[in-house]
Design brief:
Structural class of chain A: mainly alpha
Order of helices and strands of chain B: EEEHEHEHHHEHEHEEHEEEEHH
Number of helices of chain A: 5
Strand content of chain A: 5-15%
Largest sheet of chain A: 2 strands, antiparallel
Structural class of chain B: alpha/beta
Strand content of chain B: 25-35%
Oligomer: heterodimer
Distance between the termini of chain A: 40 Å
Radius of gyration of chain B: 21 Å
Order of helices and strands of chain A: HHHEEHH
Helix content of chain B: 25-40%
Shape of chain B: elongated
Number of helices of chain B: 10
Largest sheet of chain B: 6 strands, mixed
Helix content of chain A: 55-70%
């Protein structure tokens, strides 16, 4: 079982914070297939947030195939995020390290790189790239 | 679906001044609705109309489909926590609860006892000797023991310390999760409302300026940052607020579809940002499609 926390100043929507925290726990192996997520009522009692927010986060995770509800019992993890993608991440990690090295050689600062990376993300999300 | 609270052209006049006018809204059942707006916008008036404590001067108000004034079966479903927490100061906590039990047909003593215990309120203490925060806690216990289906809270958190505030929020949300009751809460503290509300009603000088599902409202507005553009236009998107520096323009827009113009960096907006932008521009409105009676076309003229 994991416990959620909330950053009220981050500006990130509450349900997304919950989604991110579950995914993070799945990546780190803190949660694995068969593990139960806290019930909506527990999350609400702990954080004092709108119950629909929790349900929305769980629906989103369900849509990604990561968790599934079992009627009368709760919501359970279906799929781990630890091993299958690890090899791929390794390669991407090396490529990114190479890119960062090149950027630094070209005189870019950390902020320059973040700005470039954010723009690339934005463009790819908008399908412009 | 029946709305928990529905108003059509609702107005309330005190002598020559309209405290609320042309107010049309529908808060769906099971929602936690934030009622926000500047001082004097009519928030308290709207809540008092919903309790039947006041009668409308114009228009119509329905609580679960029926007008609340003088209707015991409607009033039994409504819990109201007034801003000044009206309690009898010479009563003890226990006497106050017995009084509540007498007056309310749906009273649930177990609920009252449970809340008293969780708040750690001594039953033999006189109300006058309680702290401001404890009085709020007692008033909440009374309102919830009534087992309302619609709970109206007028600035409930104003005199609470941060810990009690958090506890109260948790308990309220727990009750919402367990019983699916509808809550309408007025407050000035937007950051506090952001995590508990899924519906927003913004009142501006007596009229509804912004209303709808919080997520939908947030998704429907974006902050655009780009090179200076004066006059501020953003294609099909309605500009709510604009600010400029010598080179840069920042717009808060109500989007119509995706923002394609690559000149703009598009950012999400938060609830506080959204509400403040509308409050600064009271002439701009964003309301759900008119499922209710249409507002008369000259309504905006009357206000000017």
């Amino acid at each position: 079982m994991i416990e959620f926390h909330l950053d009220r100043t981050s500006g990130v929507a509450t349900y997304l914070q919950l989604v991110h925290q579950v995914k993070q726990a799945l990546r780190l192996g803190l949660l694995g297939p068969g593990d139960q997520l806290p019930t909506a009522k527990d999350v609400v009692a702990q954080l004092g947030i709108n119950p629909n927010t929790v349900l929305k986060a769980y629906r989103e995770l369900e849509r990604d195939g990561l968790v599934a509800p079992r009627p009368g019992q709760g919501t359970f993890v279906q799929q781990s995020l630890v091993s299958p993608s690890l090899a791929g991440t390794d390669r991407l990690q090396r490529a990114l390290a190479g890119w960062v090295h090149d950027a630094r050689t070209a005189g870019l600062t950390r902020e320059d790189m973040t700005a470039l990376f954010d723009r690339a993300l934005r463009e790819s999300e908008e399908g412009i790239a | 679906m029946t709305a928990a609270l529905q108003a059509v052209g609702l107005g309330k006049r005190y002598r020559h001044t309209w405290a609320l006018r042309d107010c049309s809204l529908a808060i769906p059942e099971g929602r936690v609705a934030a009622l926000v707006g500047p001082n004097g916008a009519g928030k308290t008036t709207l809540l008092q109309l919903a309790t039947g404590l006041l009668a409308p001067s114009a228009g119509e108000l329905r609580v679960f489909g029926a007008p609340p004034a003088n209707r015991a079966e409607v009033l039994a479903k409504v819990g109201f926590l007034a801003q000044d927490k009206p309690l009898y100061h010479s009563f003890t906590v226990a006497e106050m609860l017995r009084y509540g039990a007498r007056l309310n047909p749906r009273w649930d003593q177990a609920v009252a006892d449970r809340w008293l215990e969780r708040f750690d309120l001594p039953p033999d203490r006189r109300v006058g000797q309680l702290s401001g925060g404890q009085r709020t806690q007692l008033a909440v216990a009374l309102a919830l023991a009534k087992r309302p289906r619609l709970l109206l809270l007028d600035e409930p958190m104003a005199d609470l310390d941060p810990l009690v505030r958090h506890d109260l929020t948790r308990l309220l949300m727990e009750t919402v999760a367990a019983e699916g009751l509808t809550v309408v809460v007025s407050s000035h503290v937007l950051a506090e409302l952001a995590t508990i509300c899924d519906y927003l009603v913004l009142l501006a000088v007596g009229r509804v300026q912004l209303a709808g599902d919080t997520e939908a409202l947030l998704a429907g507005h974006k902050l655009l940052v780009g090179p200076r553009r004066d006059p501020p236009r953003a294609g099909p998107h309605q500009v709510v607020a604009a600010s400029h520096t010598d080179r840069q323009t920042t717009l808060l827009v109500r989007v119509a579809g995706t923002v394609h113009d690559p000149a703009w960096a598009v950012h999400d907006v938060g609830l506080e940002q959204l509400v403040l932008a509308y409050m600064r521009h009271p002439q701009t409105t964003a309301l759900p499609r008119p499922a209710l009676a249409a507002v008369p076309p000259d309504a905006t003229e009357v206000l000017r």
